[in-house]
Amino acid sequence: GVFSLDDALKLLSHRARLMQALLQDGAMSVVFANKEVVAQAIEPYYREVSIAAINGPRNTVISGNQEAVTQLTTAFQHQQIKVTPLTVSHAFHSPLMEPMLEKFAHIAAEITYSRPNMALVSNVTGDIINDDVATPEYWVNHIRQPVQFAKGVQMLVEQGYRVYIELGPHPTLIGMGQQCV
Fold first, then answer.
1. pTM, to two decimals
2. Most CB within 10 Å of its CB: which of 40, 108, 110, 119?
């Protein structure tokens, strides 16, 4: 109920088009370490690399400039920390997304938003979200901020949810969710 199907399609299609227009010189990798270890390691690269997702207690995704991500991957491996590169077209949730944000903000401002008609857990904050999801700013931030998957799963557990269903071509999220609980 946050927006109509037409507005959702408009938002998604413009988001995809703007992302595809960006340079494809980025990379993403899963670092099997906690977010504090990863945040400390990427600090010198803050203009090039950021945390893209916190998927579990020891599952943190980094994203950014390909050369910097490669250097960080090597550094993590030297510390005996497992790293798995992701096959992606772009460095999502990284500084490399910033060139599209202004144009996307204009598109997001054209959408008609409504308060959600059911409880939603935001993957931007990991908390239950109400009015904030019904703003252009939320959807702009969604592009650049790290995905708070682990925090979102914890919120669902705290709310008493015990059954989870993953719809998709690969059972990736269910395994990450199990690590969070």
1. 0.93
2. 108
